[in-house]
Specification:
The chain is mainly alpha-helical and 118 residues long. The protein is built from six helices and no strands.
């Protein structure tokens, strides 16, 4: 069996989040249309605990790139998505991230997830 990448593990977590009740201002999104792989619940729970330990603005970076990527930003290319997500994060948390900050938080978390679970 091939090892899962950090991206695979985060998409698994996103599918897990979509499988539950929608909370807050998150738009509902049905992932089964795009990805029919089974949800690895044990992996998703580890990612959830790691995600929950992040500061709110860092959590929102991960939310923007995974659970809400298609629902909130699906009509945007990568650069426009990052810009819109940074504006969403700033408006919600008061923390204004640079594009570099955003990409660093995303990459570091994806790497941490991969090292822990892959």
């Amino acid at each position: 069996m091939n090892s899962l990448t950090g991206d695979d593990l985060l998409w698994n977590w996103a599918r897990w989040t979509w499988s539950g009740t929608t909370v807050g201002n998150m738009e509902a999104y049905v992932s089964w249309e795009d990805d029919h792989r089974p949800i690895l619940t044990d992996h998703a729970l580890v990612v959830e605990s790691m995600h929950a330990a992040l500061p709110w603005h860092e959590r929102m970076v991960i939310i923007a790139e995974y659970p809400q990527k298609n629902a909130m930003f699906g009509d945007l290319d990568a650069r426009a998505r990052v810009k819109a997500a940074r504006e969403w994060i700033a408006n919600t948390t008061g923390v204004a991230l640079t594009e570099t900050d955003y990409k660093l938080y995303l990459g570091l978390f994806r790497s941490q997830v991969e090292r822990r679970l892959a």
